Amino acid sequence: MERFRSILFRDDITKLITQLDESLLLHSERYVEHQRRIQEEFEKSIFRESSHAGLSYPREREELVKWLDSILENARELRPTDSEKGKITGLISPHIDFKRGGRSYGLAYNELMDQTEADVFIIFGTSHYAEVENPFLLTRKNFKSPFGEVETDVALIERLGKSCEWDLFEGEIAHITEHSIEFQVVFLQYLFSNRKQFKILPILCNSFQRIIQKGHSPEDDVKISTFLKSVKEIISNLGDRVLLIAGADLAHVGQKFGDAESVNESTLRWIKERDLLSLSYTEQIDAEGFYSSIEEEKDRRKVCGLSPIYSLLSTIDAKNGKLIDYDQALEPDTGSVVSFASVGFYT
């Protein structure tokens, strides 16, 4: 009232509070009850429903097929012929939206068209929303998309559970809206649903920020090292039947992501230089080198794919990696940029 020199009545304030409460924008009893109901419904469901169909990609199957056909066909024209790469055992693929990351998605998943015998896909995805410290979040739920249902390999989930002395399902609710695994599942179903049956092992990877701030390595964390050792044993047992995927983006820089200034040409060059340095360690399958390239700058780039990429590099059975694509998605309106890449791994 003092600032705008106008009367503000109690009823107006009450009305505003009511509107905020009804919109679930206040931490009120209504919000807590709504959160409890969602958690309960998720726990009862045997499926993890698609959360981004109709938002990030078409909801109708036929339209989605045409959409992905176009992405793969456009990328195929850019795909280099390289008979020396060897047999593919893993991929780093983006999890940015399909429109901005289409080329990188297409180039990544074209690598699987004719080369893989795998019927189990271990997918490490970035957890953007987890509110627990659990480094890896599992779910037994099958994943649904416009292509139907894909089965989660519960037997492998149980093996991981037995090898770890803590609750791997604490924070499982983070899977409900997480897109980093969902987008990979959509591409796998598109490629293989009509060709063979397959299962997935979906693993959400939590942030390594607390480790970075301490200046430690993830391998010094008992929970991380124990879990990844167990995953590696599973991979060794499955042999050619398994393929690893990390659904991971790279830098998030600019005002949209909390930085004081907008990105400029100098910033973009610095990001690319640092990103390519980090990616060079993925080609060497050097998990610690990849981590150190981010830790030494205290994650100034805000690399959200750090934990899934580190996890893949720590467990994959491959001789070398090859950078397939690198790109930056600039948002002039927000003065921000997201970078991402595709990398293939081969024996």
Plain-language structure description:
The N and C termini lie far apart (70 Å). The chain is built from 11 helices and 11 strands. Strands 1, 2, 3, 4, 5, 6, 7, 8, 9, 10 and 11 form an 11-stranded mixed beta sheet that branches. The chain is of the alpha/beta class and 347 residues long. Strand 5 (142-145) and strand 6 (148-152) form a beta hairpin. The protein folds into 2 domains: 10-44, no CATH class; 54-346, Protocatechuate 4,5-dioxygenase, Chain B (3-Layer(aba) Sandwich), CATH 3.40.830. Helices cover 42% and strands 19% of the residues. It is globular, with a radius of gyration of 21 Å. The chain has helices at 10-22, 29-44, 61-78, 98-110, 154-163, 179-192, 209-214, 222-238, 265-283, 287-295, 306-315; strands at residues 47-48, 88-93, 120-126, 136-138, 142-145, 148-152, 199-205, 242-247, 252-254, 320-331, 336-346. Helix 10 (287-295) runs antiparallel to helix 11. The model has no long low-confidence stretch (mean pLDDT 94).
